[in-house]
Amino acid sequence: MIKCLIWDLDDTLWQGTLSEDEHVVLRPGVQEVLLTLDQRGILQSIASRNDPDRALQKLVALGIDHFFLYPQFGWGSKATSIRNIAQEMNIGIDSLAFIDDNPYERYEVSTYLPNINVYEPVPRRDFLTFLNLRPLSRGRHPDAVNT
User: What InterPro entries does its record include (predicted)?
Assistant: First the structure.
């Protein structure tokens, strides 16, 4: 079960690259996905190669900064950023999912963290069913699967 989804920012959470254009916008449907995951009790974080101040300012301007716990920004390895997030949250790597548009980033993370679920972005209508993103406790949310 996925307990936390870790987002990349550029061309994944939003359209465009922040370091090239400060006028990036959220991908269609992302705000709805963020809210739905939050309502389901799925934690969310960020592993992004971006300037921390600019990225945080943009998240605040978009009104979505409150969704993300222990975001990691910088120019180092995303696998290291993900390890830091897991350690801060005190959860196992195998309960994380990572989403990134860049094939190299997905490859690097899946190579160094083979127990993590790694995904490329999909259209919003498919996203919530594409991932194994269920509530943390059964019956807590109307979408919970009861067995």
Answer: HAD_SF_ppase_IIIC
Residue 90 parent element (H or E): none
In sequence order, the 6+-apart residues with CB closer than 8 A to the CB of 87 are none
* pLDDT tens readout for residues 20-78: 988 999 998 889 889 989 998 999 999 999 999 999 999 999 999 999 999 999 999 99
Domain ranges for the chain, please list them: 4-130
Q: In the 3-class helix/strand/coil scheme, how is 36-77 assigned residue by residue?
A: HHHHCCCEEEEEECCCHHHHHHHHHHCCCHHHCCCCEECCCC
Q: How far apart are CA 135 and CA 126, in angstroms?
A: 18
| Entry pTM | 0.85
Q: Which residues pair with 96 in a beta bridge?
A: 4
CATH 3.40.50.1000 fits 4-130, yes or no: yes
